[in-house]
Specification:
Radius of gyration: 16 Å
Strand order of the largest sheet: 3-2-1-4-5
Number of helices: 8
Largest sheet: 5 strands, parallel
Number of domains: 1
Shape: globular
CATH class: Alpha Beta
Strand content: 5-15%
CATH architecture: 3-Layer(aba) Sandwich
Distance between the termini: 38 Å
Number of strands: 5
Oligomer: single chain
CATH superfamily: HUPs
């Protein structure tokens, strides 16, 4: 069975939008400024983007605040063909810990991470429907450590449930991750050295 090429699917969607001369509204869940840098540079050419910052997994609270401010600062500085807006979701740490219950000792990249993907994409899908967006997606697939197939699977399922199209993607392709590193250097962005949650911090420290 051939694996789907999510980058090619994204390019096909964009090609149709360009032909139709449409600029849809996209709710882009972002995990952090560095990961969003290339994604925003790329997608703001074709979409009116609202960055949705919903990351209740981030620990500690000071780290969360630092990443929020970095995200807002990047949006203000990044040149974009279409306007980029910012929307901060609630910082619901207890919701994350409830989700992770029983999976605290799971290694990074396992079931706990998949549930965290779902938690954040669920909030994005609900927000996209409430705001009458045309599409929603996430920056998470830009990381070589994140499972793009699982992210797209979750996104498509939620799209069916909430009636908002999910923009399939694998942003690490076409040197997307490399470009995000270049942009991070160019804008002097704070690049964290762990995913964000207390469990990834613990794993990094071991």
């Amino acid at each position: 069975m051939n694996k789907r090429n999510y980058q090619r699917e994204l390019e096909g969607t964009i090609e149709k939008l360009v032909e139709a001369r449409q600029t849809p509204r996209l709710l882009l869940h972002s995990c952090c400024a560095p990961c969003s840098s290339y994604v925003l540079e790329y997608l703001s050419e074709y979409f009116s983007v609202t960055v949705f910052y919903y990351n209740p997994n981030i620990f500690p609270a000071e780290e969360y605040e630092k990443r929020v401010k970095e995200q807002e600062a990047l949006i203000l500085r990044l040149p974009a063909k279409h306007r980029i807006s910012f929307l901060e979701g609630p910082y619901e740490q207890e919701r994350f810990y409830e989700m992770a219950k029983g999976l605290e000792l799971e290694p990074e990249g396992g079931e706990r991470c998949f549930r965290c993907y779902h938690l954040r994409l669920l909030e994005a899908a609900q927000m996209a429907r409430a705001g009458a967006f045309d599409y929603f997606t996430t920056t998470l697939s830009i990381s070589p450590l994140k499972d793009a197939e699982k992210l797209n699977e979750i996104g498509e399922k939620l799209a069916r449930e909430y009636g908002v199209a999910y923009l399939n993607s694998d942003f690490k392709k076409r040197n997307g991750y490399k470009r995000s590193i270049e942009l991070s250097r160019e804008y002097g962005l704070y690049r964290q050295d762990y995913c964000g949650c207390v469990y990834s911090l613990r794993e990094r420290s071991n």
